[in-house]
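Message: A physicist's question: would you kindly supply an amino acid chain plus fold tokens?
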Amino acid sequence: MRYFIAALLLFPMQAHAADVAIDSIFDAINGFLAQIIFFDVFPGEPVMPFIVAWLIVAAVFLTLRFNFVNLRMMRHAYRVIRGKYHTADDKGEVTPFQALSTALSATVGLGNIAGVAIAISIGGPGATFWMIVAGFLGMSTKFTEASLAQMYREVRPDGRLMGGAMEYLSKGLAEKGAPRLGKGLAIMFAIFTILGSFGAGSAFQISQSMGAVQEQIPFFREVPIAYGLLMAVAVGLVIVGGIRRISHVAEAIVPSMVIIYLGACLWIIGVNAEMVPAALGKIFTEAFSPIAVAGGMVGALVQGFKRAAFSSEAGLGSAAIAHSAASVKYPVRQGLVALYEPFIDTVVICTMTALVIVITGVYNAPEYEAMRAASQGAALTSVAFATVSDWLPVILTLSVVLFAYSTAISWSYYGERCWVYVFGERYSLLYKAIFICFLVVASVASAGSVLDFTDLLVLAMAFPNLIGLYVLSGKVKVALGEYQIRLASGELDREAGIKR
């Protein structure tokens, strides 16, 4: 017994030593990746990372190439989600709605809560405007990714589907006469996704959600590793079942957690209704204002697009893995379903969070400087909720845990599919074990180091992925044109037994 008591007494010292060691590892990796992958493409201040510029240009290009498909096809996409266009020829592992729920469970996460708070703290309220713009443009990017994922997916020997950026990069570029380049980019994407899953899908979720949970349950502040172990068990019980179990859990969790969180945000906005016009004005004017934080308009734009990319994952290629498993007859049909992902995630949920942060003023209040410096975005949002009512942070904590949990289970699938692509099916369990270990490790690592690690790995996925989208966008354009002709002629309605 005395050894057990001694171990408990020594735990804070041991945890601190582990924290320092883990932070030093993260910092070394971050510095290495930043030097190789990122460089500033904007003269002077602020810094414009190449990857962020890469995402902006691609989103604008694809939106124009598909003639604003993100506006024109939303109504039809909604009918597909509702199951109106189901046919006997549909082939896949999950329904279009389940695939969307799985993708949303990965994107609707702490990026919507913690990431938005961090973006506004750094880039000012104007970052919100650029987040919305990025979400709108990202709808076209996500449409392209999901369509290509359906076009190039394959059935593995075990009967499971393999699809995503690694498949359309290798096969699509091979069709264009560049098989070696395609294979190289596919492996690069897969490796970035595997490592990104350990950061964005695992470590970041625990690191940020723990900050909010600790505000409500002091025990986890004293023994943070207990939270990591608890989440590791909960995630492990689901991810061993593969995409079918993950999609069923996501289908049940996602609508509920979105309604709970949006309800709390709308309550805060309603209580402060008289401040909403001023907040909206500040968001718009500071998006173009030279006095905005961190470098004026460009600084706000960079933070907005950076956080939108991390939140909605448009351009990263990750969600294409989930959409590739959907059961549809036409590849672009699932692409149209994917339009709703950035819309719900960024245009709706991120905007609600941003309004709460701006209205309550926590993004620049001096008393919360320590939270901002430590990149504790979820805790900062919790403080914003507390300004209205003592019980609202409890609702936020519940939302945070659900968001973190749902994101973790979906990202485990993304990483596992890429792991299998690189190393083979028989090593699938090894990946899942490593993923779960990262959940525990993140509970004793600082939020700042984890955030930097996550940004680097997740944004790096866009480099190989967007090359594929540029090269193969012509094939998607042809398929979309043919689909629209069939839709206009009534052929698709007749296939699905829909009476006009």
About this structure: The CA atoms of residues 38 and 49 lie 6 Å apart. Strands lie at 154-155, 161-162.
